[in-house]
């Protein structure tokens, strides 16, 4: 078992009882092989919440630091008095959130010199070793000192030059090791590294040599309970599920909203003036747009089952040229001014900043002034949060179009929102990219679907936190 392999080191080191944070892990053959790996560089694309960060990023780092001067453990042994190890994530906030508290909880206080350095995110160990948490939003944080080992977590979300230009050279002086973990992000630099690691490992084995690189992969279903996997399949579209829970390097090409089809997602809808209405904004001039959504029961054309509660696009604003925020708001009031129930507003978070677009205030301030003046403050509410990564927003919207369990949670009325249908059908991805929207080929597109995406991300993000019952301390 993985737990046995890790605790064996602790027992041999005569360190005594570890902290309660060292809970048991669910047995898994590939994880067993990873724990025993003697490769210097391990590439580990694995499913979401399946233990990769816990095993590679946290426990291995702690054991490497605590056992750095044990000659009977050659993989961990370092000959110099000040071994340095790092845990890195795409940003400093991420690495602090993912690693910092857990690393402190995994190390018994008797092995820490004084207290961990909260400002530098560094834990000093009594044997001279140090564990650092680094954010790769500034990859130069890894430069200037030699490292004995580390982990690059969510490597697919890091800049592609982090490894070759900033980290690799810092491992040379001490022949340090490095593990690359995370869920794939399309076919980017992480995909290239994974393919290279597989090829190098196979080549070394054919020559009868010890591989310097190795590759490990497992899916979330191997670790998470069956009901959690079923919940994910209910929420996610096929490609998103394959990437997030099966750790597949999905090739995102062609249409951005590939799950949207005329047969499944276009149809006649009813507007109910007594139910809540949602206005979705993407601040633009040519065209000026807004989408109008009302949740209702939607037919399930794929599964043939009972209707599902979902999003009905019952209207839109589309002003081709010379628009501004005030004109869009005026059009919404003209079309929906007699609405009897509450109105919720969603949209681009960056529209809230004052700028050259208007001397009267930010886009959001203008909208609040217009809508509150007409409908009243007690009926208009704003749900705005920082914008998600574009890929996460796309995944969320595709999952509303058609989930892996064949549920349809989005229908557009073509007579009420014809430009919305055109947007869903026409937005494409950058050829050869990793899932980025092509905003140059057809600049009149993307705005309506972007507006809807902000609402979906607020209400139904695909990366919701699932309750786990089978394994603790995983992500």
TrEMBL record:
Gene3D superfamilies: P-loop containing nucleotide triphosphate hydrolases (3.40.50.300). InterPro entries: P-loop_NTPase. This is Terminase large subunit gp17-like C-terminal domain-containing protein.
């Amino acid at each position: 078992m993985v737990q046995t392999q890790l605790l064996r080191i602790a027992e041999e080191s005569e360190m005594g009882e570890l902290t309660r944070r060292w809970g048991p892990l669910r047995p898994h053959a590939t994880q067993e092989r990873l724990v025993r790996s003697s490769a210097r560089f391990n590439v580990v694309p694995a499913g979401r919440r399946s233990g990769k960060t816990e095993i590679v990023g946290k426990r291995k780092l702690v054991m490497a630091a605590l056992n750095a001067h044990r000659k009977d453990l050659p993989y961990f042994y370092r000959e110099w008095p000040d071994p340095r190890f790092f845990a890195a994530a795409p940003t400093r906030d991420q690495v602090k959130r993912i690693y910092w508290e857990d690393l402190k909880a995994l190390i018994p206080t008797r092995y820490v010199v004084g207290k961990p350095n909260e400002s530098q995110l560094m834990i000093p160990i009594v044997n001279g070793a140090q564990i650092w948490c680094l954010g790769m939003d500034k990859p130069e944080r890894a430069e200037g000192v030699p490292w004995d080992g580390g982990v690059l977590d969510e490597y697919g979300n890091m800049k592609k030059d982090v490894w070759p230009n900033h980290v690799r050279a810092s491992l040379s002086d001490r022949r340090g090791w490095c593990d690359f973990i995370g869920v794939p992000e399309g076919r980017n630099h992480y995909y290239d590294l994974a393919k290279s690691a597989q090829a190098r490992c196979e080549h070394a084995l054919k020559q009868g040599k010890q591989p310097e690189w190795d590759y490990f992969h497992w899916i979330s279903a191997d670790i998470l309970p069956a009901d959690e996997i079923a919940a994910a399949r209910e929420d996610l579209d096929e490609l998103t599920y394959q990437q997030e829970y099966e750790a597949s390097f999905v090739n995102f090409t062609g249409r951005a909203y590939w799950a949207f089809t005329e047969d499944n997602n276009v149809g006649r809808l009813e507007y109910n003036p007594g139910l809540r209405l949602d206005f979705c904004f993407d601040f633009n001039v040519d065209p000026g747009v807004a989408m109008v959504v009302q949740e209702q029961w939607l037919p399930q054309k794929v599964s043939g089952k009972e209707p599902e509660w979902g999003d009905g696009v019952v209207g839109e604003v589309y002003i081709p040229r010379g628009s501004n925020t005030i004109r869009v708001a005026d059009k919404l009031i003209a079309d929906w001014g007699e609405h009897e129930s509450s109105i919720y507003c969603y949209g681009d978070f960056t529209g809230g900043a004052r700028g050259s677009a208007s001397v009267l205030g930010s886009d959001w301030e203008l909208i609040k002034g217009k809508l509150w003046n007409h409908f009243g403050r007690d009926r208009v509410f704003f749900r705005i949060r920082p914008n998600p990564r574009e890929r996460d927003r796309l995944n969320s919207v595709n999952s509303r179009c058609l989930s892996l369990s064949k549920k349809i949670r989005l229908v557009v009325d073509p007579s009420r929102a014809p430009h919305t249908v055109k947007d869903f059908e026409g937005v494409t991805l950058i050829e050869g990219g990793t899932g980025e929207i092509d905003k140059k080929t057809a600049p009149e597109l993307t705005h309506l679907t972007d507006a809807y995406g902000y609402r979906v991300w607020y209400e139904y993000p695909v990366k919701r936190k699932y309750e786990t019952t089978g394994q603790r301390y995983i992500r």
